[in-house]
Structures are given as structure tokens and as C-alpha cells.
Amino acid sequence: MKIEKVHFPGNIFLAPMANVTNMPFRLMCRKYGASMTYSEMISSDAVVYESVKAFDRGLSCEEERPFGIQIFGNSPSIVSRAALAIEETYHPDLIDLNFGCPAHLLVKDGFGSALLRSPEIIYEIVRELCETISTPVTAKIRVLEDMERTLHIARLIEKAGACAITVHGRTLEQQYTGKASHEYAKRIKEELSIPVIANGDIVDEASASSVLEHTGCDGIMIGRAAMGNPFLFRRIAHYLETGELLEYDECLQRIADLETYMRSLQYYGMTHTVNLRAHAQWFTKGIRGGKHIRTRIAEAKDIEGIINSVKEMCVDGP
Ligand SMILES: Cc1cc2nc3c(=O)[nH]c(=O)nc-3n(C[C@H](O)[C@H](O)[C@H](O)COP(=O)(O)O)c2cc1C
């Protein structure tokens, strides 16, 4: 798959997820077959007015390329200023604009999916950004109940110069409830010339394959199902390539991945910026005895404690 001049090894993307998709996690997803990864969202206002902290989320490394940095904001000039600074510092392959976040903290100030109510501002943000930076610009949206109004926004994003669009088939009001509708991505794909990526409720081989087939989209993006489960990308990539399910031991895989992830957080000095217990617990979701293991993780004092308790529980059983 290709977005402007950027080539991707495939068409399965990892979704940007705040407080989840840090660099060590993204690197694991890449290793297992995610074709593209984005940073957690960065506030353009924070970059321009406060510099510091939020900016760190842009950190990546050569191994991760191609990678994208996602920003949000509601002022075309501030978004452009922030993106220029990010471009200069991190040289991402893509800069993605967030028009989908439904979090009250953002929506109340007119950021994220609140902007879907003001298509003309979306247009200005994308247009000014595309004129300001040389990095290709992509956008990620939620949908409106009204198909025509959603299509209108998608057309404006393309007209303003974006080179790809990701469509999460839920409305702002739905938050994360109900089921994502992929009809929107399908219709947008039929209308637009730029690549379209479908997102929402893709959780396994079957849903990945059926969303690609149903929508005709260029790619799919996976969020929550990848939390604690970076190996999902290997499974899906294998299935899309061969039509067969990959055989593996889920419990052993998850535990090995948990240890690799924890060691990588140590290696990159990120153990203090991540909620280690929460992240470790995601890795045990859905495995045998997971509930007992999560209790042990909650009691663990540090990374060694987390890794040891998980290993013991898996060898000895709860
Ligand atoms: C914990 C969490 C954090 C998220 N943070 C972001 C974000 O920073 N930027 C963004 O565009 N979407 C964010 N999302 C939305 C996801 O990228 C994705 O659109 C959504 O989860 C639907 O995909 P899924 O059903 O595969 O999870 C977040 C979702 C979750 C669950």
C-alpha cells in the first residue's frame, strides 16, 4: 500500500491510542506485521504554548519507519505551527489530524470529533497544514449519523489536500458503544480518490478480512483488540496472505510478549511514564486463569514482580 510517496509493507495499521501506543508497544506491533503505526495524539496548543511534555509523544526511531505523528487542534494556524515544530524535530513520514476523539475533555473545548460539526474549520485546518508542511497529511474521522454530511466532510478533507483518510464507523455520541458501521468507509471509498482506511471493531482474522472485502478500502486500522495483543498483527497478516489461521499457543505467546514489552519499556527508560500494571493486565486478557494472574499483577511491586508472577501462574496454573 502507498500513501503519497510513502510505501507500506502491507495494509494493516495500528490505531493511535492515548496512553497505550507508546514507542515500545508500536515497535512490537511493527515486528509482528503492523504496516504503519501512529503516535498517541499530541495537542497542537500544548506544543505551541507549553512546548514540553506532550511533545515527547512524537519520539520514534528508524526501526519504526514509516511512522506517523497524530496531532489535534481547532485553530488552523496553531495546528500548522505545531506541525512545523514536530516535522523539524521528529521527521515523521505522515502527520495525521485527529477529528475523531470523543473524550469530553477535548470535545468541550471544540477539539477532536467536536469539529465534525464545523466542516469548514476542518477544511481550513487541513488546507493550511498541507500548504505549510512538506510531510504528507492524513486525517482520522468519526462519522455523523447522516451519511451525506459524513461524505461531505470526507470530500472536504480530500479537497483540502489530505492524502489519506481513516474512518472510524461510530458517531461522537456512541463513544465506544454499539457496533461500528463500515457502510461509511465503503461509501467514502467509492467517492474519494485518496486511500481510505476502515476502523472500528476489527478484532480477529475474520473481521479483518470481511471489513476489507465489504468496504473495498485500501487498509484497515486496529485499536483496542491490539492492546496487550501485538501478536494479533501476525495472525491477521498470515490469514490475509494464506487464507489459513495461524497455529500458536496463545498463553505462551502473550506471556513472552508481556516480558518483551516490559523489558523494552526498561530499555527506553519509559517505566515511569506508563501504568505498568494496567498494561501488563491487558496482556492477560482472554487467557486461561487470566483473572487470577491479574490479581497477582495488581499486587506486584515492580516489573520483576509482574513478570515473575505471570510466569509462575502460567507454569503452575492458578
Ligand atoms: C484507550 C484509547 C485511546 C485512544 N486514543 C486515540 C488517539 O489518541 N487518537 C485517535 O485518533 N483515536 C484514539 N482512540 C480511538 C482509536 O484510534 C480507534 O479509532 C477506536 O478505538 C476504534 O477502533 P477499535 O474498535 O479497533 O478499537 C483511542 C481509543 C482508545 C480505546
From TrEMBL:
The portions of this protein that span the membrane are none
GO MF terms here are: flavin adenine dinucleotide binding; tRNA binding; tRNA dihydrouridine synthase activity
Q: Which UniProt keywords apply?
A: Flavoprotein, FMN, NADP, Oxidoreductase, RNA-binding, tRNA processing, tRNA-binding
Which catalytic reaction applies to this protein? Answer: a 5,6-dihydrouridine in tRNA + NADP(+) = a uridine in tRNA + NADPH + H(+); a 5,6-dihydrouridine in tRNA + NAD(+) = a uridine in tRNA + NADH + H(+)
Q: Where is the DUS-like FMN-binding domain?
A: 14-304
Is tRNA-binding set as a keyword in this record? Answer: yes
Stored Gene3D superfamilies: Aldolase class I, Putative flavin oxidoreducatase, domain 2
Cofactor requirements of the protein: FMN
Question: Which InterPro entries does the record cross-reference, listed alphabetically?
Answer: Aldolase_TIM (IPR013785), DUS-like_FMN-bd (IPR035587), DUS_fam (IPR001269), DusB-like (IPR004652), tRNA-dHydroUridine_Synthase_C (IPR024036), tRNA_hU_synthase_CS (IPR018517)
Q: What does this protein do?
A: Catalyzes the synthesis of 5,6-dihydrouridine (D), a modified base found in the D-loop of most tRNAs, via the reduction of the C5-C6 double bond in target uridines.
Q: What is this protein called?
A: TIM-barrel protein, nifR3 family
In the record, what lineage is assigned to the organism producing the protein? Answer: Archaea, Methanobacteriati, Methanobacteriota, Stenosarchaea group, Methanomicrobia
